[in-house]
Amino acid sequence: MPKLCVNIDHIATIREARKIREPDPVAAAVLCELAGAHGITAHLREDRRHMQERDLRLLRQTVTTQLNLEMAPTPEMLQFAIDLLPDMVTLVPEKREELTTEGGLDVAAKIDDITKMVNSLHKHDVSVSLFVDAELHQIKAAVRTGARLIELHTGQYASAYDFGEGNDWEEELVKLDNMAQVAQKSGLLVNAGHGLNYRNVGPISEIKGIWELNIGHAIVGRAAMVGMERAVRDMVALLGR
Ligand code: PXP
Known about the structure:
This protein is an alpha/beta fold. It has helices at residues 9-18, 25-34, 53-62, 75-84, 111-123, 136-145, 155-163, 169-185, 201-205, 217-226, 228-240, and strands at residues 3-7, 39-43, 67-71, 88-91, 127-132, 149-153, 189-193, 212-215.
């Protein structure tokens, strides 16, 4: 059974719609943990559109499971991470104009910079995961950086499953499964995420060896209707099936 890490960015999105104090992602993280989440993920974006530095600092003090900081591989963010010391950093590509993270990180093209960043974070005892597309050359590059984790981008699978976009979802699933097995044989722990929801998560959670799933939008969206604790419990139950 994969672990569930809840991405709580969109609690901050709701708050930032009014630029006031509520709802507070720190309170949401407590509820996620009480409901059985194995970790909390937050993305501090360059444009600070949802999470703020204050949120990450308080989450560092309050999260008792595992705090995963998602961030772009920039010198400014590296310094922030070294000051914060989250349990884990997930490096993601970032574009100002995107609605959400669009593709995986091009580790192969930026191998030197990413390797340096992985080394710096490891020196501070911070685990590093690289968010990559399910492509062999990216997995091989990830291994070369010395990172011990990757997060496979499930966005294309999710679009195929939910909206019939692109390839068949079964084809996307086979690709993810194959790359998950290759990565594990190369010694990496394999996480997955992006676009996962209560309908499409089943086949992904059955991929052999998947360690953690990062799920945000679907859980926060359901939480708005039924409450955070129930939304998290429903997802934990699905993963355990
Ligand atoms: N994993 C990564 C690397 C992401 O950037 C995001 C979105 O912030 C997620 C997982 C969660 O995606 P979703 O909100 O679609 O569940």
